[in-house]
Design the sequence.
């Protein structure tokens, strides 16, 4: 025998009463009748399945309503596990972004404070080297012209 117990529905406040249902028929004639009745019930159920779907479908039901309805399906322990997982994941992502932002700020300001003056001094030194090369070329050109000018009067004499 199967015994049904009372269950309180949280949403509607309905109460189902306890019932006792026999799990096996009493004799062979009941078995034949039960089998025939089950076959007829299956045929009726196939016809009713289509109408049940139409009855259960609500066009005004929102996605949030469906999520809330899952509360009845998912056990409280699993809901707690999912909730704690989402909370921990959210906290981890927030802290990762906060620390990543701080690290990016530190690297950027360090690069600006140290890198810009360093690059400016390297650029100034390169300009100084270029000026020295230019002066050396001018000096060599003047020396070359001066020796040619001194050599030219000697060659004519």
Sequence:
């Amino acid at each position: 025998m199967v015994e049904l117990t009372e269950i309180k529905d949280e949403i509607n406040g309905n109460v189902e009463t306890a019932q006792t249902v026999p799990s096996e028929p009493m004799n062979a004639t009941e078995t034949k009748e039960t089998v025939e009745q089950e076959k007829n019930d299956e045929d009726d159920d196939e016809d009713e399945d289509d109408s049940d779907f139409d009855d259960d479908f609500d066009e005004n039901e929102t996605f949030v309503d469906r999520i809330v309805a899952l509360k009845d399906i998912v056990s409280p322990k699993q809901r707690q596990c999912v909730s704690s997982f989402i909370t921990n994941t959210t906290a981890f992502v927030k802290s990762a972004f906060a620390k990543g932002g701080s690290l990016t700020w530190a690297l950027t300001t360090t690069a600006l404070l140290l890198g810009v003056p360093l690059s400016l001094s390297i650029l100034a030194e390169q300009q100084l080297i270029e000026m020295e090369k230019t002066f050396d070329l001018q000096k060599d050109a003047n020396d070359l012209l001066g020796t040619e000018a001194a050599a030219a009067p000697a060659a004519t004499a």
Observations:
- Residues 76-157 form one domain.
